[in-house]
Amino acid sequence: MQITNNDNTAVLIILAMVGVFILVSAFIIYSVRNQNRLLRQRQEFQQAQIAHQKELLRATIEMQEAERKRIGQDLHDDVGTTISGLRLLIEMFKPTGPEDESFKEFTHSSKSIIDKIVKDVRNISHNLSPTTLRYYGLASAIMEHCGIINQSGKLAITFENEAEQELSAFDINTATALYRVFEELLNNTIKHSGASRASISIKKEGDDILFNYSDNGKGLLVSPEAFKKGMGMQNIESRLLNINATYVILPDESKGFGIEITYPILAAKVAANG
Q: What is the mean pLDDT of residues 100-124?
């Protein structure tokens, strides 16, 4: 059987097509692999950048907290002690006579002023570096802070905690971050919302711990996007980012403001193990 030139040509064409197909396939595979490699490198670079930013943020927050602790300690130890000493000196002064009313009035006024200063210094010291947080944990610190605000009459706050065991396992950095978040939320409510009541609830749901905060104020006067750009919310967002927590601003079904913070229990275990 004789092979014709047409048959040879057909075979060559088929071989050429197969070769071209193989080359194109190899090029596509190489391009896809190269793109995947570049994408993986880009993702690794972005993750490294995020990790670096979080590390810088963590270091900044730790430095701020250390400075707060130092200032609070100085206020408590130095200023408070000096004022208490001054109070004792005033008590040692003797009136010119038993009926020296001006001296009695001076002593009474001085003691009242000094007592107020001591109380203010104690409150400032507590706000800068709450000892309850370090020694008794997050739940006790939030409860104490709410109690102080309730006593001031500025706001009526209810606090419910259904995750006592989980919160007690938080490391100091996580506890401090969440405490500062609630401190900021309460401060915003008192200053800007016109609210008379606020509530904080904490519960475990699946593998997460949910922190809910709400007030009965006038709600958001701007869009949620614009609200998030405020310094207060940026501070909150930075602290939550640093501990791998997320948040959502709850829909304004009536008047008031609400936010739900989600903290994964796995993150708490990782933080606790160092």
A: 76
